[in-house]
């Protein structure tokens, strides 16, 4: 159980490091976002959104790993507690055997050896329990970190989404403004053309007169 708990903790630690790396990468793509209406600028939007999504996905996996680590560590504590209970019972039984041997004035060397062995086993069980509790405490702390990491990744994802949406909205607004200006210019040109035709017609009529 202790080995499994250590392995689960190592898995969670590795995922934590990977997630931190992805969040840092996403933050870098966030600062690289460009609002210009170019292929290069558009790529920065795609890169930022992809990096944020990868960070969130990794953070979710980190949370799952940290949760599994807590479950495994909790089970390890249960096994260690059972070991302590069993060892305590062995000590009690060995002490009773020694008491009986002493009461019967028999050789107590075997009973004393059994008691020494049982007490050593109990001490070892307590050490195991202490280690299991320490692992569980560490796993609980990692779970809290995993939750905070997921929140940070999701907040970053939302911030990047807002930034990319703003960039797209800016491009759309610029395109609409350009379209309106083009339409206005075309209307002015049409009016000018009509006026020119009218002037030409007036001139032609005057020439005929």
- Count of DSSP E strands? 0
DSSP summary: helix tally = 3
Distance between the termini: 114 Å
Please give the largest β-sheet: none
Mean pLDDT: 85
Instruction: Give the C-alpha Rg.
Output: 39 Å
Uncertain residue segments:
none
Helix content: over 70%
Structural class: mainly alpha
The global form is: rod-shaped
Taken as a percent bin, the fraction of beta residues is: under 5%
H-E string: HHH
What does this structure look like?
This protein is an all-alpha fold and 209 residues long. The protein has helices at 2-31, 39-103, 109-208. Helix 1 runs antiparallel to helix 2, helix 1 packs parallel to helix 3 (109-208) and helix 2 runs antiparallel to helix 3. It is rod-shaped, with a radius of gyration of 39 Å.
Q: Summarize this, please?
A:
With 209 residues, this protein is mainly alpha-helical. The chain has helices at 2-31, 39-103, 109-208.
